[in-house]
Amino acid sequence: MNSNLKDELKAAGKRMTRTRRAVLNILETSKYPLSPTELYAMLQKDNVAIDLVTVYRNLTALKELGLVTQLELHQEGQFRYEIKEGREHHHHIRCKNCGRIVDLLLCPLKKLTALIEQETRFIVGDHSLEFSGWCPKCQ
Fold this sequence. Notes:
Blueprint: H1 3-11, H2 18-29, H3 36-45, H4 52-64, E1 68-73, E2 78-83, E3 91-95, E4 101-104, H5 110-120, E5 130-133
Helix pairs in contact: 3-4
């Protein structure tokens, strides 16, 4: 596990519990954002003694500490979580048929964000952009 995550928890006055470590380990190795129920199923498969409520509590705490990102893919209507450490701002594309999610490791909105800030004199804190379509297997 990334030592920065441990340090950030410690700095926030939080302990690295066994369940937090297990949640963070799975999120660190996942190739796509996970729903709480997917995360719970993976923890069960790894024989981690944890209930779904504790998964939700840990995700909420980790999100509040800024260690995980919560995103909502609108076509699903549920939140998903991914590790924030070492990841650049990015967007996602989701298959409308099988639900596969792929990271888009780019953000085409940088110029648009600058234009919006110039026009409105707002400082844009964040934004979201979601794509959906059909993956190669489902085409």
